[in-house]
Amino acid sequence: MSNTSPALGTPPAVARPLPATKAVSDAPPPVRTGHCQCGRISYQVSGVPDDPHLCSCAHETRISGGPAVLWVGFPLDSLIWTGPGGEPKWYATHPTLRRGFCPDCGTHLASVADGSSMVMVTGFSLTDQSGIEPLGHSHRENAAPWMRITLAPGPIVLMSDPRVAAIPVTGGPSA
Ligand SMILES: [Zn+2]
Ligand SMILES: [Zn+2]
């Protein structure tokens, strides 16, 4: 992301509005934990969540069984496998990319590209899911067409979509 500030040599660090991504830059917890469904594989990462995004590529929709996977990056050297199962089982969907999953319950937890200093973890495997709202959507063109009603961000689509307008605003406080 190129933050181009006009002309002046030293841009003021104050006036940099980050729309709807406040939590990303707002002092995230330094350490986060995550785990698979059965608990055999768990992990710890630390640092500022990097590039939280959805992906709807053919590999991930098939592997996950869902319309998209939420990914968020952390420094690879912060990654520690903490569960009784140690490391996940790895499966390469590309020659240069491997994905880690629990061999017992099948939960997908991580993705590491060769040469990358980041590990991408699945957002929903994290215990603390604050500050990882997706900022983009990779392979959006492959997403299920109906998914646009739930995509983020998309205020214009949301407000103009009659199907969304038909959804009750709230189910009440105790729903
Ligand atoms: Zn498991
Ligand atoms: Zn993908």
Automatic annotation (TrEMBL):
Q: Where is this region: Disordered?
A: 1-32
Matching InterPro entries: CENP-V/GFA, Mss4-like_sf
Q: Which residues form the CENP-V/GFA domain?
A: 32-147
**Keywords assigned by UniProt?**
Lyase, Metal-binding, Zinc
Q: Name one GO molecular function term.
A: metal ion binding
Q: Does the keyword Coiled coil apply?
A: no
Q: Which Gene3D superfamilies match?
A: glutathione-dependent formaldehyde- activating enzyme (gfa) (3.90.1590.10)
Family to which the UniProt record says this protein belongs? Belongs to the Gfa family.
- Record-given protein name: GFA family protein
